[in-house]
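Re-running the complex after MR caught last week's input typo. The corrected sequence lines follow. Everything else is unchanged.
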Amino acid sequence: MLRNPLVPTLSGALFVALLALAAAQLSAGDIAARLSRQANDAIAQAGIRGVEAHFVTLSGAPTRHARLTGGERLDDAARDRAARAVAEVPGVGGVHWRDSSRGSQGSAEAARPLNCQEDVEALLRTRTIRFEEGSARIDAASRELVDEVADALRPCLGSIIAVTGHSDAAGPETDNVALSYARAEAVRLALVARGIPADGLRARGVGSSAPVEGLDPADPANRRIEFSVIEAVPLNPTPVDPPGTRVTVTR
Amino acid sequence: MPIWLELLTLLLITYAAGIAIGWLLWGSAPAEREDLS
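Corrected-run output:
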């Protein structure tokens, strides 16, 4: 006999929901109490005084997300140390301060200089993004490197990053410019596919006009892709951003 | 996010995934199967 599947399916969902609520009722308080104990121990071990971690929501329900109170007179580094200590406790879902919206990594992120360009250059110093002969298709072997480049560029989200294609001097320069642009565009699209916002990436091709310093313009080693931060924009422009940590035009 | 909401979300997603997998494997919700009803 066939039945309407909606009724048992929804009944099952209701049963599961009740099960979840009952389980939460039984265990949530203990979980929050354990997290609270461990988090406050971690704060003490980090040498921070006057900061307390609370694992209750504003409505009073137990949560895994810590709310830190106190520490108003501590400097950013100490507050960040406290937040990190809490964030490292297994099971903690997230950390925020009651008196600000900064997360556990907020001030550290803000204070970190914009070094993604150096990271990308370090990646490309020993390896290069290769393309199939005479084409703008990224070689399969280089896709992993593009993944790493995307990871290195991620801290610069919000900045304008130029992807510049270069070629050697072999062949007509118009073709070289077109191919170097097509390759830069291919890399740009590959980065977009890896989650880097398209509006922060500019592709350009300069042909053989900018050979590697000290190299003959005809040397095939001039075929390369370069990344440069042409406009740095802070991720979260907040008043707590220390001055001078974001750079503009580094190339 | 309170723990009860996390647990509720997790279990409901698991339940929905189970229903979906069953549907994909057997082509119907479990309650539609004649041998179960």
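None of the earlier attempt is carried over here. Chain A touches chain B through 29 residues (CB under 8 Å). Residues 150 and 196 of chain A are 7 Å apart (CA to CA).
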